[in-house]
From TrEMBL, chain A:
InterPro entries: AAA+_ATPase, ABC_carbohydrate_import_ATPase, ABC_transporter-like_ATP-bd, ABC_transporter-like_CS, P-loop_NTPase. Keywords: ATP-binding, Nucleotide-binding. PANTHER family: CARBOHYDRATE TRANSPORT ATP-BINDING PROTEIN MG119-RELATED, GUANOSINE IMPORT ATP-BINDING PROTEIN NUPO. The keyword GTP-binding does not apply. Residues 6-241, 246-491 form the ABC transporter domain. Belongs to the ABC transporter superfamily. One of its GO terms (molecular function) is ATP binding. The keyword Metal-binding does not apply. It comes from Devosia marina. Signal peptide: none annotated. This is ATP-binding cassette domain-containing protein. CDD domains: ABC_Carb_Monos_I, ABC_Carb_Monos_II.
Amino acid sequence: MPDSLVQFEGVTRRFGDLVAVDNASLDIRAGEVLAILGENGAGKSTLMKMLYGLYPASAGEILIHDAPDKINGPADAMRAGIGMVFQHFSLLPALSVRDNLLLSWPRTPFWKSRRNTDTADVLATLAELAPHIDPDCPVGSLSVGEQQLVELCKVLNIDARLVILDEPTSVLTPDEAERLHGFIKQLAGRGVAVALITHKLADVEACADRIVVMRRGRVVDIAERGARSITETVALMMGQSVERKLQRPPVLEKIVPRLVLENLSARRPEMALQNVSLSIAAGEIVGVAGVAGNGQALLAEVVAGVEPLTGGDVLLDGVSIARHNPYDAVATPLGYIPEQPRDNGVVGTMTLARNLALRELAQGNRPPVTGRDLLFRFNVNPPDPMKTAGTLSGGNIQKLVSARELGGQRQAVLACYPTMGLDLAAIEMVYAAMFAQAAAGAAVLWISEDLDDLLAGCHRIAVMREGQLVALLDNSSTLTREVVGAHMIGLTETEAAA
Amino acid sequence: MSTELIAILASWGIATLRSATPLIFATLGETLVQRVGIINLGTEGEMLLGACVGFAVGVATGNPWLGLTAGALAGATLSLLHAGLVLGAGANQIGSGLAVWMIALGATSYVGRTLVGQQVTPLPALGTDWTDGIPIIGEVLSQMTLAAPLALLAVIFAAWWLNQTRPGLHWKAVGESALVAAENGIRPTRVRVTAIMVGGLLAGFGGAILSVDYTQTWAQEMTKGRGLVAVGLVIVARWKPALVLPVCLLFGLTEVATLRLQSAGFELSPHLLGTAPYLVVLAVLVASHIFARRASAMPADLKAVFQ
């Protein structure tokens, strides 16, 4: 039995009412690669951020070998030899690679010139890990994958004995990911423990020695490499179905295409949409499933006319509603519930009444006097139209945006994670409003991570992976979450069945 | 090349250098301040106070070096007000800078009344009996004081400080992102206060050189916007200390040219002619933006001031 470096004993972390990590116990051993696998929001990042000192535990204990003092912040963690590489890097893009490394290096001398031989060691890890990166070029000119390697060098430069990597391959090309896998194994070989937070089975397959599966804040399984089949692991990740009282949508009597995506292409620095085609009929609900970060956000913003497209078109009843170049101004006719509505869907400094009337205000019309009825109907708390939106909680902002977008009849609805942060009653209320739109003839495009809900409420389910629609499945009674899940992570159906 | 032409060039060169020296100090100081993510419009006020205090102390003690030192310290002290307002009270940087400027303008106009028409002992010229015999070089040295060489040294030192030392790296990091700097164990507020004070010190020194060395007189509002020009020249110099020198020299050269054109009887309104240095610098700014299309060199945290 190898020595354990870190031990979690019954660790719990709450954020308000939300239990992000629930009574988790596990250990991390020197020289092993421990994969922490789970869907988004399963609590894996929170668990590791507690170890790194970013959040204190609400209950339970984290014991670190040879470090008797409590970890109160990242500085303590670093002193205890724990380093973490985040999804969002803490690099300064304007400074050179070398300067960025010198900045966090504890041994940087006063005279930091290249001619000072005392600075040579700062580049040693970089030379080993990524010899192709020129230390004198600014970090901003590197690719995201290269930046991640620089960030990793920063952590290794503090002589870490435990390195935590938060979704490291989500920003990498397949080649870069492969190189990283090799490097992770090499690190473990040197006796460094690596905690790898991921939702990709490919990462686990490539380099994990032990696999911890988390779901809804709990550690549901800890197994040695090879002890579980892929299917078992996927089932553990996704868990049992939750019962929701959702009415299955009525079967469509006739197919009249309403919202049509034609060969959509668009790109952002980190993501590209390629030839997405989808036709949604009046009254039809089409769900979009996929692991987070596979282009759903970009798809939504292109359909809503926020991001310009580079090819194809979005048609509503035959009329283009997309933004064809960055200078177009498009007021979307869709009922649009964006992702992160606090940032994308409300004006925090305006009252609830004015937020409900943003479209009227944008057109220069007088807004309706009050929206009290809507606030009550969508259960926004407090239902005071004169309150400023910024003071509401996240869930109430979500309800406020639903009230505006679903309160009146729309030709089509685009909903991105419309139940994020809502309690059970509110979730059912939002779904009921969305399904009522469809029943009255709207075409509904619904992006969600909750497969059970999609299976319960959709006519068809489209699966997105790496910016493409990889499957379009009829939601018959034989469609299961395992089949959809297999498409999400890129297994063929035969592999999934195995 | 004829000796005469060289003599003319040397005379223009010295005039340019002398005219640019106060501006080099002020612009260099403001460059350092902006590199840590702070904008200080109070540079104008700090120059003015430095000019006033420096002249007064120079007159009172008869020692120009004491005057220059006092001017520099006055500028640094005034800059602490900006630091306190911005970093302590969280005031708007533009508003705070304007307040510092206005306070200095009022105070120096009031205090400086008694200084008008006074005589100050000038800095000694660099020339000695020994160099006077050398053609041209002797001439040049006899017209120069230590102020200009000091300005060159200051530029070199600042460039070395920012680019070759650990504290300089910390300054740059704070200017790019105070948050990331703090994550790396740097104290952004301490760095910013220090940089603002160094900026005030240099601006005050530049102002004192203006009154004690360059004009050797005191007049109300004598900096005539040089401090504000310095804030603008920082952008033209793309926030790089090394570029402060050529940019300020260009400004000084245009100023000298307009003065000489006027005295040569050039028939254009002196007011219009007086705008020439600003127009030239504006042209350089536009040109540099067109030719250097790559990402702006502006420190990232400085952008937040304007958002």
